[in-house]
Queue: 2 jobs
Job 1
Amino acid sequence: MATATGPFGSLGLVETRRVVLFTEDDPLVLDSGERLAPVEVAYETYGTLDAAGGNAVFVCHALTGDAHAAGHHGDPARPGWWDTLIGPGKPVDTDRFFVISPNLLGGCQGTTGPGSLEPGTGRPYGLRFPLFTVADLVRVHRRLARHLGVNRLAAAIGGSLGGMQVLQWALDHPDDLHAGLLICASARLTAQNIAFSAVAREAIMRDEHFHGGDYYETGERPEVGLTIARMMAHITYLSEESMREKFGRRIQDASAPRFRFGVDFEVESYLQHQGESFLQRFDANSYLYLTRVMDYFDPFRDLPAALVRLQAVRTSFLVVSFDTDWRFDTKHSLDLVRVLQTAGVRVTFREIASPYGHDSFLLEVPEYHRTVAAFLARVAEEAGVAP
Amino acid sequence: MATATGPFGSLGLVETRRVVLFTEDDPLVLDSGERLAPVEVAYETYGTLDAAGGNAVFVCHALTGDAHAAGHHGDPARPGWWDTLIGPGKPVDTDRFFVISPNLLGGCQGTTGPGSLEPGTGRPYGLRFPLFTVADLVRVHRRLARHLGVNRLAAAIGGSLGGMQVLQWALDHPDDLHAGLLICASARLTAQNIAFSAVAREAIMRDEHFHGGDYYETGERPEVGLTIARMMAHITYLSEESMREKFGRRIQDASAPRFRFGVDFEVESYLQHQGESFLQRFDANSYLYLTRVMDYFDPFRDLPAALVRLQAVRTSFLVVSFDTDWRFDTKHSLDLVRVLQTAGVRVTFREIASPYGHDSFLLEVPEYHRTVAAFLARVAEEAGVAP
């Protein structure tokens, strides 16, 4: 693990709240034209909104994240997933910024998703939940920001799928974001990226307990499929280097191989734990929807049109990649930086050296944290956020 | 696909034969001390053994290969898996060499494996089949060579797991091989390599139809698990570059995305086809055994002892890696080359530029084929094989 960047304070106890943002009278109109209501959103906030409503930073989570980004829910030893980045004196400084962190549409941690009850039938949606896009995620984010009294954000920040949301937000609403931070993100998945997600989905959908997505009332869940999906994905989150350091060829609880099919190497034990503990906190249908939304994301597909739209974008970007990330490697970041620069959008790009692969964005990598802190300090100054 | 290296002839119709090599009176004694009998081996031969018995080349297949390496079984359009490499005038020239190609112990294409009947019970072994090592595979290979009248081989050649067998053979029997060709092989899997195989095995063993390996008589097979295992493995056989070229983000049979969970991108269709067609030819238990044998392979673990043993090795090696192979990248080859060179063993190493990733060893990559041809021509000369 990287060293701590300083003796900063903690947010302490925080809580997740919920709010209904779209109702039958005022439904969420999706890119597909479908209407979805009600849409309830689970979210957390940290820090205080200033009088001008101009110091808000919006956190967009990645594939398996949730609203609980920072602070803790009672056990200080189990903080939120981005607690190293967000808090008093931390790179996303809650002494200065008002931070908003929701669970995504389609998720399974409090926000309306495929496990929610479908009005009319009173049964969980399952695969009847409409397919949505990254732009639809942004529609919900905007409504939440408005609900909290924020019309323009000092910044939006996200890693991986989170970065996709930030990019889409700036494209669709060029005046909304003063700044956007895209951490190990991508504007377009490669065939290999799609392939990994496709196999994960097949593992879930071919599971005998999937029942076409209607497993909620059967007492069974596609646990094998979801476990396998998570184990496989986890390989792509770590670098080969970090796996070598972390596990090498070491044998679990023994000095010599036992020659068996069960867990023998430490890396096997680690993956099993990752796969099985994931079952406690994630829903298979949400995994399907949120991986599929990434596959289809391709905002620069019609490049001439995108360049025209980008002319209006006033957002200033920080794009960060990690040199050992092979899920979304630096080329993904460079490709999107090139498009932004071609359109004359302000971009700062940093490739950070870190041994931890894609997972680096969740870890306390000092150069990464310094880069985010410096960028946000400049943003605060430009946006007139009081120190 | 790479261009053809020349208008060479074909072997035409070939056949797979079978021979019982170990019996209850003369069982195969495994590294573990367990005894296995009977052991029947399916094999093919191409070309003619010369009077001195000195022109034999032994082919060691990889994880999912079989005895049918070259020629065809009736349909010239469906040749053996290494038909581009083996045949009259080809790099492994059957006008000059007598080629032996068996199915591996533990396999499912004619050689005794977990799907074979266990003497005594009369039921398929399943997981009661003993765990074996690469050295055990070599024990069976040697017996087959002797059976065919060959005491010393001009060469043994193998890709991936096949190369592991060649390396082990030279280590265990330093006078057996005049030459050894290790194509995209490894002397030691990394944690990431093991991780991919571990997830594949979990997919199989957690399949409801696995029944602890005793699925043969249930009328069911762990088809979902084996399909997922194959789909995932296939991602690691292709380079990101070749996936980009082959599929990119193209949509299957359509010009625009259909926004659905079923197959939409071409790469999804390809992987599904690979996974499902694999079911026709492979047994899940064999997949478990043959991936596990690779995990445990580590002949240089005790390096000082290995260096001492290597002093006696008279084999001359060709080690080939491919620059876009990320399953067993060039570092795997370089690591083993370094050990061989430290021990004073003769080694020629070539990293070949090829866009096709690990799969390159199965494909007609001109520089690769030229390298193998030139090396084997020198071997033939040194070993006194008539032109």
Job 2
Amino acid sequence: MSKKRIIILGGGFAGANTALQLERKLRRREDVEIVLVSKENYMVFQPMLPEIISGNIGILDTVTPIRRLAPRTELFIRDVEHVDIAKQQVTLSPGFESASTVLDFDHLVVTLGNVTDFRRMPGLHDHAFPFKNLVHALRLRDHLIRVLSEAAITDDPALRKQLLTFVVGGGGFSGVEVCAELNDFVRSCAKRYFKIDPSEIRVLLVHGGERILNREMPECLALYAQNLLQKRGVEFIFNMLLASATPEFAILGDGQRIPTRTLVSSVPSSPNPVVLRLDVPLDRGRIKSDLKLQVEGFDNIWSLGDCALIPNPKEEGFCPPTAQFAVRQAKTCANNIVAAIDGKPQSDFTFTELGKMASLGHRRAIIRMFDRVNLHGFVAWMVWRMAYWVKLPGFDRKIKVGMSWLMDIVCGRELVQTGMDQPTSLVEAHFETDEMVVRQGDSRTGVSIILAGKAVILSESGDGEPQVVGELGPGDCFGVIEFLDKSLAQNSIRCTETLDIVTYNQQELEPLLLLPEIRRSFENLRPEQKE
Amino acid sequence: MSKKRIIILGGGFAGANTALQLERKLRRREDVEIVLVSKENYMVFQPMLPEIISGNIGILDTVTPIRRLAPRTELFIRDVEHVDIAKQQVTLSPGFESASTVLDFDHLVVTLGNVTDFRRMPGLHDHAFPFKNLVHALRLRDHLIRVLSEAAITDDPALRKQLLTFVVGGGGFSGVEVCAELNDFVRSCAKRYFKIDPSEIRVLLVHGGERILNREMPECLALYAQNLLQKRGVEFIFNMLLASATPEFAILGDGQRIPTRTLVSSVPSSPNPVVLRLDVPLDRGRIKSDLKLQVEGFDNIWSLGDCALIPNPKEEGFCPPTAQFAVRQAKTCANNIVAAIDGKPQSDFTFTELGKMASLGHRRAIIRMFDRVNLHGFVAWMVWRMAYWVKLPGFDRKIKVGMSWLMDIVCGRELVQTGMDQPTSLVEAHFETDEMVVRQGDSRTGVSIILAGKAVILSESGDGEPQVVGELGPGDCFGVIEFLDKSLAQNSIRCTETLDIVTYNQQELEPLLLLPEIRRSFENLRPEQKE
């Protein structure tokens, strides 16, 4: 008799908990195997992620290794390349092998969540920090330390102002929590930099609503949070959305340019592209599932969590995309899959939301429970931590996290960079009209290709106004002379409308010149020198 | 009156401690400023680094932020581009500015250590894990978890064997310590992977001597360590050096090829290139300093630590490159610089080595003290930890590290990947004669350029032997058809002598095709199709 195989796509709360619940139901059964496909080998507890910024908890304490949660599940840390529902096959990106891996399934559980999507906001993909997983959190943390270090040594007041301005987009749960932790971190760290005047630090929260958490929390709690953050130095810009971003500016809906090197945006999420390519009924980019968590029209395809559109069992509308719902859905889904395999009756998902919480850093939080009780301040923060702590898997992890919280009371901020903030070889950048893209004499240039927009080449001679010596448009490139001659920037480049470019690091492009054919092309691209 | 500026290049034990000692001596003096230039914002305690692999201690506990150690020092996290000793100027790579930073100095302290250098061992640069800093340790740790995860799900026995074979090159302190921790980690982690048979795991230590630690430790201690590691499953290959490495093999001096995906090499270090370019007297790549730590022929240039050649005050020969010596040299150097500024007499460096220690993981260590006393086992491990703990800067850090050590007794292994093991866009690779470089049908290819060596193009048709359809040599490339057509590998490539290639990720190269000139060149590079 061949084994039945259940494949779960996605290792977030919904996916990992489905595996966990399946293992519990299937204990000692050899006739079913569980496969989980995830991009990361850990499950992130999103609400704790902002605490990584401040280093209040150990870096690894916010996340739970999936293997620990579901030790008998086969875990594939791979990308999903293709799902063939008719053939009941999933194709995964290669591991150490050179070819893709194809797996057959009897039941498929889709819990792919959604992805950050900055497409409608020019430049945010290139210049804003997303904040969804551990790598994002570590990268932002490294960047904040770098920005403070550079602010402490620069002699240029304009640059220092940019470096010490921090902009967070979005006043929902994630935006508020990130903003609170970021504000705490930069202000307390700055004390270690004797050349930084704390009053120079600005932390701005840009939000589309008229107050923070306007959709998520009752007014009294939201205002409490708002006042608390304001007292700690956060400035708010309400009724305003981020419009775009460039290397040196965050640009608001009304055109205002805020000079900054740190823009965090928690706002836009869109359906996972893998979900969009699935041959299942979708509504608003989410998979239509019923209360059994079965996808409409299928009896072996299941979907839950943020990527699924599931009727809310207790209220009008649909289940919100929260961990609370995902965990309960996972339990129902696992039960129903086992029932399906065994030919037993399936049951409906049912759950009433317990409450909503937001941490505000510095031992303060706000909580709304059972749609009736409001808590705020230190007590709420204690409840928030306890609620998380109870859910930690395993006794030893509970102790470890408990201890690092205790330690936090006596210990100072951690200033070590983990080295995540590494330069990459290929960088995309967006500029708004009239920004300087390259300044004559710059030492760090690369070969840039214009994807969209226009720019002028300026020659700055010793005296007076820079002269326009050329124009550039889509498909044109600049930086070739500097690349071939290893020289400083020969000219300045200023864009005359919004400009999108992609820039190759010189060093990384170097080996291509070994190909005589390619070298000749680059030589041909070298513009005529002006005398 | 203008301030005197002391610039310290390098943030290792020697550099950071020089800053610390200078701050102590110069407290409240406004006439001198201290600048420290370092690649990282933390100082690594090398002997603790291997513990990161096993996660016995918190990731950040092995390192000390320099800012904490020397809060009044201006810290530049930059690369040194150029030192002009005659002009008394140092040029640093740009920060957020676009141009390099130039700083004048009155006194220059060179503590640039040395760098990992695999140049004499083909392929090690591309395929071996170095082990000198935090990023290296985190990257290796992520890789080990990945290798175990893939071993647990592959159906290919040859690949599984490769994945579960771990090779460490070098049986000195660093090699032995890394090997001990790596062995502990993979063996204890493997228990969580129900599909991995622990007896399949091989950990090999390759060493040029006839026993481990043959230069560093007396025979009885070395043999104790060797037996202990052997009992825990480490295999030794003595009187043998690593010769080269390829993506799938570690190759020994006698030509033996060990199939592995994990090769750690602690062996080769060479002078820092910045030191080699300095206009100061060098001997064997090290800067000639006297017992005052002054560089021969200069009264404002100082050098200490691993990059300096300093007579050993108590014995024949020169100071060994150890943290113990660096710390004491730093104190003398700081005193002498302040004496020089104040026109007071300078003193000589003097120090007798206290002892040598090696940790063997799992609460065991060996120690040689005062050239007389030998300690081994648990007691030695306790002494080793205490010796480190005493040196931790700050009370809160002491508590934190102490607690994570206590926690370690109750807690299991941490399996979370931090995400350091990211694929890069430009990959260099080395192959030995007759290895397969590309297999027909591979899905993950790129555009590769041959730097050295020769290869043949093979066409594998349905039946029988692959046919040679072309030859490749230096300056040739392959993977262009697959890049332009987005297809699977059309042919196999096998090298006919040792081969060095550099491979561009297809996606990263894509934007270059926007340049018509370059696209045409790639089209021209497309070889004639065989019918």
